[in-house]
Amino acid sequence: MPRTALIATLAAGVLSTGLAGCEHRTEPPGDPGVCYHVVPQKDGKLKFNKLVNAPNLETCAANLEAMRVKFLTMGGSQQNIYGAYQANFLFLQSEGVLTSTSLEGPRYVALVRTGDGRLAIPGAMPQAPAQ
Cα(45)–Cα(114) distance, rounded to whole angstroms? Predict the structure, then answer.
């Protein structure tokens, strides 16, 4: 690769990284102990509906999961839902629950689904012996 092309590529990478820091970050409320169901609106904003008071993120996720299952049994079709707990978004998906400090940020595994569909803390379930 010619030297000018290499410099141009590096400069573009540095500029895009710098601009990424300027992106708008949608952050959830940080109210202590409050679990929210988050509903995206047609205008792009988010509506935060208080669901329950919860002592921890896992309890909030369990309440959101119970709400999701109840809606599905009543004929709903929404498989993936959003929630929020103490300045963290919760993303309930078929794989489990992911969490992030912003809607646009990286997501990390908080809970995984067991073989029968329940939610569990990663590593809490016994692993099959290696063969």
Answer: 33
Place of tokens 């919860």: 54
Please give the C-alpha separations between residue 9 and each of 1, 19, 20, 34, in angstroms, as whole numbers.
Answer: 10, 15, 17, 46
If you search the block for the tokens 């997501």, which residue do you land on?
107
* 53 DSSP β-pair partners: 34
| Pick from 79, 24, 44, 36: nearest CA to 61 | 36
Is 87 strand, coil or helix?
Answer: coil
Other beta carbons less than 10 A from residue 104's beta carbon: 12
State CA 35 to chain mean position distance. Answer: 14
User: CA nearest 29: which of 97, 82, 81, 84?
Assistant: 84
Single pTM value for the model: 0.74
Residues 55-74 pLDDT 10s: 999 999 999 999 999 988 99
Contact 67, 37 (CB under 8 A): yes
